[in-house]
Amino acid sequence: MIHSLYLNHGLNWMLNKALSQHVCIFTLHRPAGPHGLNGVDLEMLEALLQLLTRHGCQFISIDELLTSGNSLNPAKNYICFTVDDGYEDQTELLIPLLLKYHAKPTLFVITDLIEGESLPWDAQITTTVLSTRHNSLDAAQLGVPGEKWLSLTDRRYIRRYLSLHAKRLEKNARQTFVAALKETLCADTPINSQHFTPTNWERLRELEQQGLTVGSHTCSHSPLATLTREDIGEELERSKRILHAQLSRPSRVFCYPVGMNEDFDLRGIEAVKDAGFIGALTSEPGYFISETAAKKPFTIPRLSLPASLNTAVRYTSWLEKLRSHQ
């Protein structure tokens, strides 16, 4: 009953007419698994997709959304799904489930990851922390602010803590930090990266034929604010070139690495424009609002997919959109 109220067409139409079209763009990362990260519950996701389909919600790709302008139908409750990174479990589990319900997903890939060059810096931190036999870390020795010694009991927390520090470093300093962390924690222990296997171009081409769109998440997943203007341009140009060489119809939308406001700046926005993209996605929470997106297409917010079905349905509802507007 509550789902029928949340997804009521008439109430959604009135909100869209009164406050400009609101669209929920969900962002997903890894499915739940042994990778040590918070993952998407596939049963919950399928239940959500079934509910949205049953209530007549309209799935739309991010490219369609950004090129629709004012032609979106206010009577429709549009839902958009995006997935970030490009790991094998995403293309074997998440994407096929989204395609099963014709959800028009877009996967934003880290091209160095797909090319097999290296794991992204944040994945290297995660695999190092999960692989170590140490119980504590002399963080001060590595230049990490805060407490000198960090307990490694809660490894998810430590991974996030170290990643938050690393993402703010400029490129060379970040590379140095990751190398030093590996030497400190895993000098005598093999780093286990088996749960961080990338997908491959052949699989992406198969999924593209089934309805997937693939877009750029840069080459290295480095926050643009930490790169020089020259490095930003090179990352954008090279990732775009690789995507066009490997795929038939790459997305014209860009996805900022990490994606919070502090992770990109005006230099990055201008570089994305100069690279020929029509818009860009952030990780800042919020709804796509037609009037705002028309003025600021390079800072489009998204919502992380909640763990709870009721919360996920509420995020797509007229009620939550109304609350967010206040």
UniProtKB/TrEMBL annotation:
Location of the NodB homology domain: 77-326
Gene Ontology molecular function: hydrolase activity, acting on carbon-nitrogen (but not peptide) bonds
Protein name: Polysaccharide deacetylase family protein
Coiled-coil ranges from the UniProt annotation: none
InterPro entries on file: Glyco_hydro/deAcase_b/a-brl, NODB_dom, Polysacch_Deacetylase
Gene3D superfamilies attached to this UniProt entry: Glycoside hydrolase/deacetylase
Biological process, per Gene Ontology: carbohydrate metabolic process
Lineage per the UniProt record: Bacteria, Pseudomonadati, Pseudomonadota, Gammaproteobacteria, Alteromonadales
Alphabetical keyword list: Signal
Pfam families registered for this protein in UniProt: Polysacc_deac_1
